[in-house]
Amino acid sequence: MTTPYETGRKIMELPDVRQTIQRQGLDITVKDPQQSARHIKAETELMAKIIRAASIRIE
After folding, report:
1. What is the pLDDT of residues 19-52, one digit of tens each?
2. Alpha-carbon dihedral of residues 31, 36, 42, 43, nearest 10 degrees?
């Protein structure tokens, strides 16, 4: 059985996909599920600090 991570990695390795993404000025970084979870956690913590510091509220 193929995991979503494996499927996504294979898609991102396709030359036409890589070229399309790179033409848009983006870099491709494929992370394993644990790396992705750590990245999301770090970004969430960073955005929470920014939101609190700026006193941003949902209307």
Report:
1. 999 999 999 888 899 999 999 999 999 999 999 9
2. 90
